[in-house]
Amino acid sequence: MKYLFYTFITVFILVWVIPVIYLSSQNPEIQWNWDEINTNDIHFPNSFAWGTATAAHQVEGYNAHNNWYLWENSFDNNNKSRIHNGEKSGIAADHWNRYNEDISLMEELGVNHYRFSIEWSKIEPEKGTINIEALNHYKDLCNALIEADITPVVTLHHFSHPIWFEKIGAFEKKENIQHFVKFSELVFNELYDLVPIWCTINEPSVFVSQGYFNGVFPPGKKDPVLAGKVLENLLNAHIQVYRHLKDLPGGDLVQIGLVKNIFQFEPLRRWHILDWVFSNILNNVFTHSTIKFLKTGKSTFYLPGMVTNDLENQDAIGSLDFIGLNYYSRMHVEGRLDLNEPFIFKTRPKDLQTDMDYALYPEGFHKALHTISSLNVPIYVTENGVADRSDNIRPIFIKRYLYALNQALKDRLDIRGYFYWSLMDNFEWAEGYKMKFGLYEVNFKTQERVLRKGSKPFIDIVKKRGADERGYLVNIGEIAPDFTMEYISGEKVNLSDLRGKVVVLQFTASWCSVCREEMPHLEKDVWQKYKDEGVILIGIDRDEPLETVIKFQNDMKTTYPLALDPNANIFGLFADKNSGVTRNVVIDKNGKIVFLTRLFEKEEYLEMIEKIKSLI
Ligand code: FCB
């Protein structure tokens, strides 16, 4: 009895306690303290691409030749519609006819990119029959976008394809990939000179899990082995399209990538080994196996007891000019001792829920950006958004997710742009029209579009000026932003109090060697030379305590005044807080910025001295 008890305890410790402790320490639950975070304190580079995203079947309307048309018009075993409320996409948001109006909406937002998909079934409704009008439609759309200074970004497959393709087995069969390659070539030849960014396939893992595992997307199958095959074929289709388009005229001038959705799977109960086991399996099959395949050309699609599919294709290596990341949230997994249903997904009451069955999780966005960055190619966030009928959560969502994105940029990830999902409300696949993802609300009776109040934070950030290549947020010719500074003597001064003088602000810090190199020159060439001629030089020390700054001044043997800058808030008015010190801002007697330097470059420095001289 005693022996059995000890055996049980030992086994329990080995297969439960130790693994759970290990897994918890390797995968800590990331939770930021939002009460302490200032989500306004962010800037994006001026070169950052801002856009919105849609997909053909969800917005265009008039699709009667694709797999979704079949699905919307079919019933399950209980004679129930496949779509929430029995809805059909129908004319959707009538984007097919209203794209010009929709481009004005984009202009109103201030975005400069638009990601949309090409509806294969409109271009090739029957195998081999090309609808030239449909091709021209997309050409017109691209031209209209370009006219509005909006860069078109095309997706070649976004969940929908022609019925004839579905009927021959779609991506279930390797030999069907050639049809998709052919279609891609056709579109590419038409649009390559108008479209600089191409997404081959949208979210292979979602297409596969919903269509071949959960059975809620067409073709509604629940077959893990087939799911593994379809994923393999989709990834190989991406590779073939990539290689093929790259060889066509114009191929070397465009960027071609794949769009990967990341949903993290996390244990509902962090102490429960089963929750960990299933989370790990799901993360591997949904995300890590694909990333590994794209990186190494080798990987395994594995679901224990169901499927082991080895993927291999050396052409995968180097088949991405960029990776598109679609991120929404995470899922909490509860493992069970039930072979029919070994795990289920659950929401946690404490989380801020969206209308979809997942919560807000901006920390996960930051994590997903790091995960996807392991591919070592530029990243575009090709989708991110929230379903929120109430419009109460939307502004919080936008601020926090953009903050998370900004943190990832600060971590130096190569993120080139962000596309909000979606421009306007649309047909949310199996969820029908219930989900409201739009920055614009659409009245599906009148087709009227109205900007949601909760979309404002997105517009604010898009319109907020970014930093220039040197990290400056201000420009020559502008009035310098006002602030109050405290000198190390304790005296407080507003910048605006100094009108009538020429002011030179030197941003510095005691740990900065370039600043130290520059300071004696400033002392000699500016302070000693012009302090009696109406010039004031102030060293603004970035975020260091008073004692440090006093010691710094003593070390440097300079005599011009130094001021404190707690949290780099003064610095942040002039430059992105993420950028470095050693900068001088010269402000004329009227408060206007007239010269900006970065680092201590001899020529620029001498030019600045000349400038100061000319202002006296
Ligand atoms: C993504 C799809 C997109 C949209 C959003 C909400 O998985 O790519 O079409 O449905 O989810």
Task: Detail the topology: elements first, then pairings.
Elements: H1 2-26, E1 49-53, H2 56-59, H3 67-72, H4 95-109, E2 113-117, H5 120-123, H6 132-147, E3 151-157, H7 163-167, H8 177-191, E4 197-202, H9 204-213, H10 224-247, E5 255-267, H11 273-296, E6 298-303, E7 307-312, E8 322-335, E9 343-346, H12 362-373, E10 379-383, H13 394-410, E11 415-421, E12 440-443, E13 448-451, H14 456-463, E14 484-487, E15 492-494, E16 502-508, H15 513-530, E17 535-542, H16 546-556, E18 562-565, H17 571-574, E19 583-587, E20 593-598, H18 602-615
Parallel strand pairs: 1-2, 1-11, 2-3, 3-4, 4-5, 5-8, 8-10, 10-11, 16-17, 17-18
Antiparallel strand pairs: 6-7, 8-9, 12-13, 14-15, 14-18, 16-19, 19-20
Helix pairs in contact: 4-6, 8-10, 9-10, 12-13
Beta-D-fucopyranose (FCB) binds at residues 55, 58, 202-203, 206, 261, 326, 383, 421, 428-429, 437.
3D architecture notes:
- By secondary structure, the protein is α/β, with parallel strands linked by helices.
- It is built from 18 helices and 20 strands.
- It has helices at residues 2-26, 56-59, 67-72, 95-109, 120-123, 132-147, 163-167, 177-191, 204-213, 224-247, 273-296, 362-373, 394-410, 456-463, 513-530, 546-556, 571-574, 602-615, and strands spanning 49-53, 113-117, 151-157, 197-202, 255-267, 298-303, 307-312, 322-335, 343-346, 379-383, 415-421, 440-443, 448-451, 484-487, 492-494, 502-508, 535-542, 562-565, 583-587, 593-598.
- The longest helix has 25 residues, at 2-26.
- The chain binds beta-D-fucopyranose.
- Beta-D-fucopyranose binds at residues 55, 58, 202-203, 206, 261, 326, 383, 421, 428-429, 437.
